[in-house]
Write a structure and sequence with these properties.
There is one protein chain. The chain is α+β, with helices and mostly antiparallel strands and about 850 residues long. The chain contains 27 helices and 35 strands. The protein is about 35% helix and about 20% strand. Helix 1 (about 5-15) crosses helix 26 and helix 4 (about 85-95) packs across helix 5. The longest helix has 22 residues, at about 690-710. It is globular. The structure holds one RNA strand of 87 nucleotides.
Amino acid sequence: MAPRYDFKKIEAKWRDFWREKGFFKPDLRDTQRKFYYLNMFPYPSGEMHVGHGRNYILGDAYCRYLIMRGYNVLNPMGYDAFGLPAENAAIERGVHPRDWTYRNIETFRRQFRLWGVEFDWDREIATCEPEYYKWNQWLFLQFYKRGLAYRKDAWVNWCPGCETVLANEQVVEGECERCGTPVTKKKLTQWFFKITAYAEELLNDLEKLEHWPERVKTMQRNWIGRSEGALIRFPLVDCDGVIEVFTTRPDTIYGATYMVLAPEHPLVDQITTPERRDEVRRYVERAIAESEIQRQRVDRPKTGVFTGAYAINPANGEKIPVWVADYVLMTYGTGAIMAVPAHDQRDFEFAKAYGLPIVPVVQPEDRELDGATMTEAYEEKKGVMVNSGPFTGLPAGPETIQKFIEHFEREGFGQRHVSYRLRDWLISRQRYWGTPIPIVYCEKCGTVPVPEDQLPVLLPEVEFLGKKGLAEIPAFYETQCPKCGGPAKRDTDTMDTFVDSSWYYLRYLSPHDDERIFDPELVNAWLPVDQYVGGVEHAILHLLYSRFVTKALRDMGLVNFDEPFARLFTQGMITHKAYRCVEHGWIHVKEVPEDETCPHCGKPLLTEVAKMSKSKKNVVPPDDIIERYGADAERLYTLFMGPPEKDIEWTEEGIRGAYRYVNRLWALVWDYQDVVRQAPDEPVRREALPPREKQLWRVLNEKIKAVTEDIEGFRFNTAISALMELTNELHDYIEHHKGERERLHGPLFKRAVEALILMVSPVTPFIAEELWRLVGHEDAVLEQRWPEPDPDALIVEEREIVIQINGKVRDRMTVPAPLSEDREQLEKLALERVQHRLDGKRVQRVIVVPGKLVNIVVE
RNA sequence: GCCGGGGUGGCGGAAUUGGCAGACGCGCGGGACUCAAAAUCCCGUGGCCGCAAGGCCGUGCGGGUUCGACUCCCGCCCCCGGCACCA
């Protein structure tokens, strides 16, 4: 009888072993078999839960596998350590964000160790260290030099909850991505990174990323939002100037019956006639005050006001009124449109509401459009151009659109233009816990970049100030101009933390270099990252910014690749039931009794399956799981629970199932360790094996093949099920010989058990290391070679042939392998075999699929 | 509305150049061990009919192609994610 599987003792025994042996430290000079594996680095918030494990356990298992395959694996870890939650937590607890952050980092390190998740710890980085953020500042200065960082006065997203501005990417359905507060607009002077300069390339290069999930690429395509069309200038009547519009339908210009400016459009004030001024001002003020959510509701009625001004339609010389309406957005195109109500549903609704003329210029083939009776806009590009001057009679479509644009270009009032939804990346943040922007404002010299040799601009060492930023710390912002030495003021904003994470994967190659941002030689040798893994929530934000920064660095000559991440895998979330009592609110999962009633009042609890969060009190900490079932069981369950890209619910039953398997594995190897240890180390020859042994030999090699292929494809769930099948097969084999160990085939049994231990080791490294010693080895599992299938073992001597009648399985027969390829023989044998079922029925046809089946078609 | 992904037992999920649907695990039922329970082990487990042998039905719905469809085609429904007054 095996002694109890004492996971605590075993895991404690091996916990520091791999680190001490240096298995996770690559030799960076050896790039022959290099593999750069990377998990998205975490934000160190409190402590990790089992959901975080999805990411890191997967990565650790994959890297252990790669090491055994002989790869030189770089798998580093760090912390995205700047950010607002640190400030908020610090405000709540009265500790400095730095202390809170470092305490969390300490917890994360402890948890990684408990999990057996190993990295090259010499490369650990934290973005809040001056050693790191100095290079954020350096990067900013390089961007500034090249015009990729610029300051402008703009309407920006403002989160009243976080008291800071946000990038467009951080506004989700009108709300702050972080805190959910409805976002408002503010006009501020802020720093931007010119990501739009790379819009076209960011879009086109998505095609190169064949190993990225389709949905991430689609999301980025949508986000970039390319549309082709034209810019057209409409001269104003009675005053100088023009209104420039962007349109994707230049062919409908003859149907433009009015124009609309966004409420924030700078021309609004200039062109509004005195008698309309009050009304326009009221409308504009109200529109600007409204939140983005209210304004962006698709279903709300169109509103607007007439400015009193007119413009000339440059195509036909007609005078058309200029309106202001909030359905036109200042942030897209030029902030102004030509309105063609007959062919644009939004313009149509507006025209109907305000009695503006509707003039069709595209007539469909099957009906006659009439502006007076139309009930909706005709948006299709099919039919014939009408009412369109020299274009009348042309077929509607792309060719005609081109002709229109050429006409505009000849006449000089418009030109071809591509517009993007993507806007420049606003990087200023009015917060303390971030990278100071290395810019000084001098009354004499203006905007002056901090010289590179004066970096880093350090965050001031202050008692934490609560919800106040650098703007409240004179000791920080009062400075001298680097150019003239006169009194000057520092920029008091910090950078968006997405700047920190947009290049960290480059820093891992030389994390402590204080001469330069990274070592280009190493970076070019090791990048792009071979495999990047993280949550899909970064599909746009982090991944788009990183792609942009990589391209910018390439154009500076610092890197020689176009894309930072060759392969991307997005793992799903782990969810858990959350319980709520109508009276007592969220109830912690640990306090919920078996019958799912409230521990305070006994009422039945409401349940929902949700992402683990402190607020819903449904967080499962790994520490508890490891205490009760061990890290190996948690790792096994995490990888077995389902396909890693899918969201999945954590259950107590599931972890128990995994624990059972680890126990079974322990007992199996323990009980038969002597058979393995004493077996002669001789090759297994298939021909020499008795039938049951032949089967074990075949199954073993099939499973080696299956497990290997599954791990390569990140299908750990099916890899583990194959390992379980192999374990079951071994049990069955032992059972076949009634557990009499002298009847077991030593060399074969040894091969099978050892392959099982090695193949399970990426998933359950602790027990694997222990079992490996138990069967008589002195060196480490990570020093072993990954098992290879023996092609000879995969040869099948007999095949089972399915016999169908009319496509339904009716019988099966086992035939020698060579015979299974003989169509005529198979047909004959099958007919004989099912003769009794065919009585009297006429056989019409027989389909034979060699090696697989015979289908007899009757009547 | 547009784009992407998906829908298979009580549950998580396997299976695709069209060829045995439900691997593996959970749960459940039965048995062994035990004074008893837990743990463990063994057997069973898609539904319906049948004592059984066996039969019928079955991969969201409706059609189609095919000897044969979870898999391919056409038309729908539902769920998840992204974008959305983007001109």
